[in-house]
Structures are given as C-alpha cells and as structure tokens.
Write the structure tokens for this entry.
Amino acid sequence: MTETKSPESPQPESPRPPDVTSNPAVIEAGHLVKRYGDVRAVDDVSFEIRGGEIVGFLGPNGAGKSTTMKMLTGYLYPDTGDVRIGGEPVDGAGIGARARIGYLPEHTPLYREMRVDRYLGFVGSVRGIGGAARRDAIERVVATCDLHGYAGRRISTLSKGYRQRVGLAQALLSDPDVLILDEPTSGLDPAEIVRIRDLIVGLAAEKTILLSTHVLPEVEEVCRRVLIIAAGKLVADGSLLELSAQTAESLAVVLCADENEASTALAELEGVARVEVTGRGAEGRVRFHLDVEERFDTAERVARFVRDRGWPLFELRHEVPSLERVFLDRTRGLARPHEEQAKEVAS
C-alpha cells in the first residue's frame, strides 16, 4: 500500500516592520538654531520623521541633542527655525501640537515623596485630564508600564528602573502620538535595559518615536533610521544599511610590533587611507583599524608586508561597518572646545 503524504502547510513568514515611507511627516524640524552666549548649540538642523517611525538620535556629549529635543517639545524655543508636530507649529500658541507629544527627559522630574498613583493623577490634572478620563488614563499607563503592585508606593522607594517606568508612564498619560525619549535606559542594569527596550518596541506599533541614547546596540536593535548630530550640526540621516554603505571600507589587523613603527608603516602602504589604533592586548599585540580604498588587494598587500617585516600576524579581516564605526567616522574632528559649556547651559 502506497503511503499518501499530506501536503505540507505553508510556513508563516517572519513579521516585517511596516513600510512608513508613504506616511506623512509627523515631526518636522526646519533650520533650527539655538545659541547660548557665544556657543551655537544647535546650528541649522533640519529633518522630518514620518508617522510610525522609530528613529535613533545620536551624538557626542554636548553635541546639541538635548537642546534639539527640548525645542521639539516646546520646552525651549529656537532662535531661528521652526518645529511642527502633525502639521501644527510648536510655539507660544501651539497648544494642540504640544498636547500630541510625550516627553521623557534624561533626568525625569519626579516628586519622590508622592505615591506613584497620586503623582500620575497630579500630572493628569496639570494636563487638563479630569474625572473618569484621568482614572482611565492612569489605569492604562500603569498597565502599559507594568506598574501593577507599585501604584500605591512612594516613588522614593522604587528602584531606578521602576522610577524610569514612572517617568515613561507620565509621558504616556495623554496618549500622545509622538514620544521623545532622552536616554531612557541611562544607568539601568542590563535586565532592566532589556525590559525598557521591549516596552519601547511595543509602543512603536502605535507611536512615532525619537530615541536619544548612548547605547548603540539599543539603536541597532529597535531603530530603522538614525540621525547623528555633532557640534550642533546634523552630520548623518539614513537607515543603518544606507549609512554603513556610505562608510569607507576597512580592515581589522591584529599584530605584534612596535605601535608607532607599525602605524607609520601601514599608513604608507598603497590603498590605505587612514590607520587608527583601536586596542592593545597582552604580549605586545596591537589592534589597528585601516580605512582602505579596496579591501581585497589591500588585505593581500598588508599580509605580505607584515610577513616580510617578520611581525606575528594574529588577525586580518574585513570589518563590516557597525553603527559604532559609522558614528565615529561621522563625528571625528567635530568636537568643539565649548561643548561641555554648552551642555551645562542647556541642561
């Protein structure tokens, strides 16, 4: 008797992020300039973020990130330029635009002696949410931020991770269309970072999110697109794939040699545009990053040269440009002498 095989069930496709390229712009920043005395903290910054996007906002300390986000929320007004949320201007009369924004600043202003539920009730009343609507809003954000069992506790008794959840809950209280998050996982332990990250990813299904962080793997994990600012200027805007493709080809080389001698010699090789020491190990090992014009021929040239010099070679490989490499390349040489002063004034 011949065995009849039933047709195989089609395998479900992996879920794909929604295509938002046709969505209208929800956040529009046009030629933003903000000065603090002689320091131009934000210098002619323009970008758009479409509905449904989750965008990483990166930059060195003092680059102008926090100042830009404060202008997006209406906390600060630009000296020149304008911000629109959902097509409405964020200015003195832009109450409707500001109501569509949820903002979590780097240092969340919590009243630590208040209970969580009373703090959220206070924030709701300040934002004009009253009666049953406020109670419903508090229940919603407590559930969203997994604060059940903590609503009756004083904020001062909570761990930093749970205080950050309270900060995120207040940002979500008015059910905004836009979330602007400044270092939401700063200072958290690894487990809490993952929980907050998962929460942000869940919110991205319904919100447009601008996420500022120094944790680059976090951006690689959750963001489709990246903005990079340095010395007050926008120096990169694109998907991780686009930015990686625009980054110079490179080689990673680990060998045992005098660091200065090897750096000078490698920089003189044909096809090598730049040499950078990126690490030092035991027994005199040095790790080099080489920006190259073409990786295959240059790699063969490096291998022959190192062999002829008699230097032990432990590693020679092509480096796929990471977000860290993109960030370093785009911000190199753009630190300004007054950036720390600008950061202090802006905070």
